[in-house]
Amino acid sequence: MHFVTLKKWIYAGKVKAIKTLGGQYRIPESEIRRLLGQPMPKNKAIIYARVSSADKKEDLKRQKQMLQEYAKQHGYEIVATFEDVASGLKDDRRGLKKVFDALRAGQANVIVVAWKDRLTRFGFRYLENHAEDLGARIEVMNEQEEKAPQQELVEDLLSIVTSFSGRLYGMRSSKTKKVVEVVKRAIS
């Protein structure tokens, strides 16, 4: 196949491709398999766990254990487990980057997380769409009920205030706790 034909197919939407910042196109393995009529590996899962600070390492351990049990109960073959000890607002987490590198390589078709906010505090749908573009989906173990828009907004605001005040004053400082309390009282 000529590269001009491939570009035309990409523009026409016949072939899914990811455009890099440099203007080049990358075709995910899942798309190549689709075009060749080969099935994607089924039930191959990547587990992703995250906690916000090093003093929560025990929580991280429990989270991974719960996710492994969940994956086994749902018939998934666990191909990799990645973790991060970082804020959900941090956009350059090493473990999360490895998750999407593994998806790009076609190693799995499911990402299993305990809660949406373990993957990211904001922009979950962007990551969900990106995973779908790579031929995978995100499965949330503890799906929460739909929240009222006001409740969701308040929780988002508190997450932002906590994160930024933590960066300014240090995570365990009393100033951080005071700032969060003042904001909670102001919005309640």
UniProtKB/TrEMBL annotation:
Name of one Pfam family that matches: Resolvase
Residue ranges of domain Resolvase/invertase-type recombinase catalytic in the record: 44-187
Classification via NCBIfam families: transpos_IS607
PANTHER family listed in its UniProt record: PTHR36172, RESOLVASE-RELATED
UniProt xrefs under InterPro entries: IS607_transposase-like, Recombinase/Transposase-rel, Resolv_N, Resolvase-like_N_sf, Transpos_IS607
GO function terms (MF aspect): DNA binding; DNA strand exchange activity
Record's protein name: Resolvase/invertase-type recombinase catalytic domain-containing protein
